Amino acid sequence: MSTDPENQGHIRPIRDASTIVLIRDGDSDNPQVLMGMRGAAAAFMPSKYVFPGGAVDPNDGAIALTPAVPAHERALLSNRPVTAAPPSPEAMIAAAIRELWEEAGQILGVPGDWDGEVPDDWADFAKAGLLPTGDALQFIFRAVTPPGRTRRFDARFFLARCESLATDPDDFSRACDELSHLHWIALSEARTLDLPFVTEVVLAEAEVILRTGRVDSVPFFDNSGDDSSFLRIS
Question: What is the pTM assigned to this prediction?
Fold first, then answer.
């Protein structure tokens, strides 16, 4: 089944998106995850607790990551395209970093000067004198929103550690108002929140990775076609 918007008729087009699962005290017996609540009037997942994330923007593909995305991550992210023109692995990771900055006021970056013109949605990030880093994120999950939803995304989920932040993990003063009730919550308690189903599944996957330290393959809920399927990308 084509995912080209022009060929989908009444079916909503699928947009590429990136989401970040930010973990604090990941090596302890009580790791925490950063979550916030979407507004009651939001078109997508209203009043649900989610991780910071959103659609990949065109400007994200022009962002230079320092250091670059590791080769194994590039290979995983390039696997099984769904949209007609999927973004580059670098764009997906840059989008996750930008969304964390916009929605939580937190920066995954290293000191450095930007070359050339800075896109508007990266301007405040650049003013901090930091460059987004390509090796701080680990691709752990992927899911395509099923048909019938108000919006549909091919979402990649990335795990990152609080220790990689260049900002105070308890300071959300620079966050936009898209997510409210931003807070760190123990993984053992996060499932008591009002969560989308896919968020519950990602939390479970993150727990396994923190416990074992391994990612042998990446789970993929593919709802892009007429039939849903569960795959593992390796």
Answer: 0.91
Query: Dihedral sign, CA of 42, 44, 46, 51?
Result: negative
Residue among 82, 88, 87, 96 at smallest CA distance from 223: 82
Topology annotation, domain 5-233: Nucleoside Triphosphate Pyrophosphohydrolase (3.90.79)
148 backbone φψ class: left, alpha, beta (φ>0; ψ -120 to 50): left
Q: 101: number of CA atoms within 13 Å, CB side?
A: 22
Break the chain into its structural domains and give their ranges: 5-233
**Cα separations (Å) of 103 from 76, 178, 206?**
26, 6, 21
100 phi-psi bin (left φ>0, alpha ψ -120 to 50, beta other): alpha
Model pLDDT for residues 20-51, shown as the tens digit of each residue: 999 999 999 999 999 999 876 665 667 799 99
Range 221-226 average pLDDT? 90
3-state secondary structure (DSSP) of residue 218? strand
